[in-house]
Design goal:
- This protein is α/β, with parallel strands linked by helices.
- It has one domain: Arginase, Chain A.
- It is built from ten helices and ten strands.
- An eight-stranded parallel beta sheet has the order 2-1-5-10-9-6-7-8, with helices on both faces. Strands 3-4 form a two-stranded antiparallel ribbon.
- Helix 8 packs parallel to helix 9.
- It is globular.
- Bound molecules: zinc ion.
- The site of zinc ion has 7 residues, from loops.
């Protein structure tokens, strides 16, 4: 098993251009790549992925959805009130989804230990049958389904620390007890879902864990939730792979989100999931870029996480605020109905 970190990206991902005033611009990825070129990550290797196959995409998306997305090829127009395509968007979306496939193949096949998919368009709002919130194809969901179908992995944990609720990912696995979706997000905020009571359905009940946090929550508050709630839940679940929807719009400088994280907080969150992956599933961990709209904050946060993925110690962060600790206790008691380990994880 190699200890290598794979950084997965492709120049064609810059060809998705929703327009000059759109926050999800190619300049986001350019800022990340420039930062990683200026200060390379020791031990990291770059990989350009192939586009995702229809077979891989249809594990999550409906045939009508895939046909609709592919049918946008070469067009320049608004698809929803907030999501636009340019001539290169469809190929970028297919390669973004393909990055997750490549990450899973490399990690499960032993060619790398961890991966970071530096991709756009993002994916976690894309529903099985719907383009939504800058997202066309659900990159992280497609990767989770691929890990199970192509590699026979039993259980996959998806963590989502983007400031927005990953409603598309939740929808894809809402009835599925083999994919646990753990999602922290600001509430209230777009898309308005992700309530504490949204727990999954049927056999999947309990396997959707939503942590809606108020504006102003910071590094200490979020890291506390991951250490004290994600860790015991993940240990009980026993994943064979951990995938992260890593959005960086929870950064204090982000123009869209209202949380107060810093690059240190993101690195600390990354440290929590890295240590869980090392302990529970042989290190198998892949991050997927989702949101993040202040270019400098985004580039610094991605770089900080990449360093942790490459083996650096995560930085210390403050304790949770009084408000954060009180909210964590509410979450803990609420989710202990389905995760008894939380009943023992007090304080
Ligand atoms: Zn977001």
């Amino acid at each position: 098993m190699s200890d290598e970190l794979l950084l997965i990206t492709d120049p064609c991902l810059l060809d998705h251009d929703p327009g000059d005033d759109h926050p999800e611009s190619p300049a986001r990825l350019r800022a990340i790549l420039e930062r990683l070129e200026a200060a390379p990550i020791a031990g990291a290797r770059w990989l350009a992925p192939a586009p995702a196959s229809a077979e891989a995409l249809l594990r999550i998306h409906t045939p009508a959805h895939l046909e609709g997305v592919v049918g946008l090829r070469g067009q320049r127009r608004w698809v929803t009130p907030d999501t636009a395509v340019s001539e290169g968007s469809v190929d970028a979306a297919l390669v973004a989804a393909g990055a997750g496939i490549a990450a899973v193949d490399a990690i499960v096949g032993g060619a790398a230990r961890r991966a970071f998919c530096l991709v756009r368009p993002p994916g976690h709002h894309a529903k099985p049958d719907r383009v939504m919130g800058f997202c066309f194809l659900n990159n992280v969901a497609v990767a989770a389904a691929h890990a199970r179908a192509a590699h026979g992995l039993q259980r996959v944990l998806i963590v989502d620390w983007d400031v927005h609720h990953g409603n598309g990912t939740e929808a894809a696995f809402f009835r599925d007890p083999d994919v646990l979706v753990f999602d922290s997000h600001q509430s209230p905020l777009y898309p308005g879902t992700g309530e504490l009571d949204s727990l999954g359905q049927g056999p999947g009940r309990g396997f959707t864990v939503n942590l809606p946090v108020p504006a102003g929550s910071g590094d200490g508050d979020l890291v506390d939730l991951y250490r004290r709630l994600l860790a015991p839940i993940a240990e009980s679940f026993g994943p064979a792979l951990i995938l992260v929807s890593a959005g960086f719009d929870a950064h204090a400088r982000d123009p869209i989100g209202g949380l107060e994280l810093t690059e240190r907080g993101f690195a600390a969150l990354c440290g929590v999931v890295r240590d869980l992956a090392d302990r529970l599933c042989g290190g198998r961990l892949a991050l997927f870029l989702e949101g993040g709209y202040d270019h400098q904050a985004l580039a610094e946060s991605v770089h900080a996480c990449a360093r942790v993925l490459a083996g650096d110690d995560p930085p210390p962060v403050p304790e949770a605020s009084e408000r954060g600790a009180a909210l964590r206790e509410i979450f803990r008691i609420h989710h202990a109905r389905y995760w008894p380990a939380l009943a023992r994880a007090r304080g």
